[in-house]
């Protein structure tokens, strides 16, 4: 059981990172799905920051989370700095839970809804799916578990640095 617990931050981090990194090609290229999502939130809220900046802001946050969950920990292991792995993964999970909390909230409590367009023809949505919402929920749970497993890393950030 201890081995399974020690592997979960890597498996959960890989899942979250796969979701986040795969979505970057959509967020950073102006694909219609993120455009629809963030434009819907902009129209609903009246906050202009949602689009066109929203996909970039969230995409950069997802990239940061992926680097903290997997990239830096691998680098720390290669540098024989194992003590830095848990704090990096803790921060990555914290960023992920923040991003996914927003995603889940917006899917549930705005006109965005759970099903979002996944296929487009001539600029119009032709297929809808709840897959983004489900991925957000699973990512949120994975991040929560990583935070719990690495909860002792809080001490790393709280102790005085000399």
Tell me about this structure.
This is DoxX family protein. The protein has 162 residues and is mainly α. It has one domain. Helix content is 71%, strand content 7%. The protein is built from six helices and two strands. A two-stranded antiparallel sheet has the order 1-2. It is elongated and about 55 Å long.
Helical/strand content category: mainly alpha
Tally the helices: 6
- Report the major sheet: 2 strands, antiparallel
Q: Record the strand order, biggest sheet.
A: 1-2
Radius of gyration: 17 Å
Please indicate the count of domains: 1
Mean pLDDT: 95
Helix content: over 70%
Task: Write down how many β-strands occur, each being a DSSP E stretch of 2 or more residues.
Answer: 2
Q: How far do the termini sit from each other?
A: 37 Å
SSE series: HHHHEEHH
Strand proportion, as a percent range, falls in 5-15%
Q: Runs with pLDDT <50, length 5+? A: none
Tell me, briefly, the overall form.
Answer: elongated
Protein name: DoxX family protein
Keywords: Membrane, Transmembrane, Transmembrane helix
Transmembrane segments: 56-78, 90-111, 131-149
Ordered list of secondary-structure elements with their pairings:
Blueprint: H1 2-27, H2 32-45, H3 53-78, H4 85-109, E1 116-121, E2 124-129, H5 131-149, H6 154-158
Antiparallel strand pairs: 1-2
Helix pairs in contact: 1-3, 1-5, 3-4, 4-5
